[in-house]
TrEMBL record:
This is Oxalate/formate MFS antiporter. The gene is oxlT. Residues 1-416 form the Major facilitator superfamily (MFS) profile domain. The keyword Transmembrane applies. The chain crosses the membrane at residues 20-40, 60-80, 87-106, 112-132, 144-169, 175-195, 228-251, 305-322, 328-347, 368-388, 394-412. Keywords: Membrane, Transmembrane, Transmembrane helix. The keyword Membrane applies.
């Protein structure tokens, strides 16, 4: 809902092309917060070279950012439900700008961690609002809409990775933080004025047997009491932990493999292995989110999860065995992120299908906190790699992804269908009983 100047509450009208415009604006906003997570790896070693705080201490800022970003989303979603998306996204734009401005001046770990908290608040406000708004506007294409919105976050860094890397080399990481922080925050702040929710709940066009959707809108407290929510939460954590570790540590991994600056030529393009990998990762990540969302709209959520999680396990295994080969490093990380990013389209879509549209922003926000839980394992990856090497870290991630793939097909799928069918039967029985009582 949107608060007008006279205090009245209004909302966007239901027009054919209007929801696509809302989707595009959400995608752009997501692209502007992408570097807070995916561009971070470029700053780790320069910050360490300048202050000698150590990778583990610096990466703690990344964990703090992700935890804050995810665990505050349900709170920010409550503000969206009460005051509308505009004010929440405006707040997010201001916070992400302030975060990187503080990073540019940070001369202590305390200030670096404070900036991570502020950035997490801003990114969470933008992320939760834009994905939740997409779920409400597109109940008939939840996978595609959530995937396209999340693609902004996944691919948003692709266009700016090279400029940021170049600016860090030419002007220093502090200048890069300051310049891109102000620019990204300003764009989000301006777009916030035009983001609106639908006026009414939009029903799905048709019911698909392979895509069960509930007819009941479950409140957040009801969702938290369901076993299926916590099973999805566990699988989300299992898959997200490997992706977050790889995103945060890809630069240190490349340096430890001694291939970071090795030239790699693919499809007529030549770049240093690390820069090529990060750029290609963002492109594949961004493409994979709407693609797998569309696939899940067609063949079902759980079969798509099985395909994606299984492929991720194979790519991590390839990195473990052949990651020291520059071409393998670039291609394996690209394919891995292409199938990893789909968790940010499939889980929101599955959450909306399972628990309804009315409270989709808050319910998805609660599920999204699984990303924050997974981020707690990121510093642990540095510790394990120091003691046993990166191969041990990859082996753990392979096991988690393989297990998640099997759970999607053999645990989530039957449990979710049983939940939806059972609740609809229960609701029908209650309605029939009430009708008989009124007749009597």
């Amino acid at each position: 809902m949107i608060s007008s100047l006279d205090g009245a509450v209004t909302a966007a009208p239901l027009r054919t092309g209007f929801r696509w415009l809302q989707l595009v604006m959400g995608i752009v906003c997501m692209a502007m917060i992408a570097n807070l997570q995916y561009g971070w790896t470029l700053f780790v070693d320069p910050i360490d070279a300048a202050h000698h705080w150590g990778r583990a201490a610096i990466q703690l800022a990344f964990t703090i950012f992700v935890v804050t970003e995810t665990w505050l989303v349900p709170v920010e979603a409550w503000f969206v439900d009460k005051y509308g998306p505009r004010i929440v996204v405006m707040f997010g734009g201001a916070m992400i700008a302030l975060s990187w401005i503080l990073n540019s001046y940070a001369d202590s770990l305390t200030l670096l961690y404070a900036a991570a908290i502020i950035g997490g608040m801003g990114a969470g406000a933008v992320y939760g609002t834009c994905v939740g708004n997409a779920l409400k506007w597109f109940p008939d294409r939840r996978g595609l809409a959530a995937g396209a919105t999340a693609a902004g976050f996944g691919a948003g860094a692709a266009l700016t990775i090279v400029p940021i890397a170049s600016m860090i080399v030419s002007s220093g990481y502090q200048h890069a933080f300051l310049t891109f922080g102000i620019g990204q925050g300003l764009i989000v702040f301006v777009l916030a004025f035009f983001i609106q929710p639908p006026r009414i709940s939009i029903p799905p066009k048709k019911k698909q047997l392979n895509l069960p959707q509930t007819k009941i809108d479950f409140t957040p407290p009801q969702v938290l009491r369901t076993p299926i929510f916590w099973v999805m939460y566990l699988v989300f954590v299992m898959v997200a932990s490997g992706g977050l570790m790889t995103a945060a540590q890809i630069a240190p991994i490349a340096h430890d493999f001694k291939i970071a600056d090795t030239p790699v030529t693919l499809a007529g393009f030549q770049m240093a292995a690390l820069t090529f990998a990060i750029s290609l990762d963002r492109i594949f990540d961004g493409f994979g989110r709407p693609f797998f969302g569309w696939v899940s709209d067609t063949i079902g959520r759980e079969p798509t999860m099985f395909i994606a999680f299984g492929t991720a396990a194979v790519m991590l295994l390839a990195l473990s065995a052949y990651g020291h080969v520059p071409v393998v490093f670039v291609l394996a990380t690209a394919i891995y992120f292409g199938v990893f990013g789909e968790i940010y389209s499939l889980f929101p879509a599955t959450c909306g299908d399972t628990f309804g549209s009315k409270f989709a922003t808050t319910n998805n926000g609660m599920l999204y906190t699984a990303k924050g839980t997974a981020s707690l394992l990121v510093p642990l990856a540095s510790v394990i790699s120091t003691a046993y090497g990166w191969k041990a870290v990859f082996v753990v991630a392979v096991a988690l992804n393989a297990t998640a793939a099997l759970m999607a097909l053999f645990v989530i799928k039957p449990l979710r269908r049983s939940f939806i069918l059972g609740k609809e039967v229960e609701s029908a029985d209650t309605a029939t009983g009430n009708a008989k009582t009124e007749t009597a």
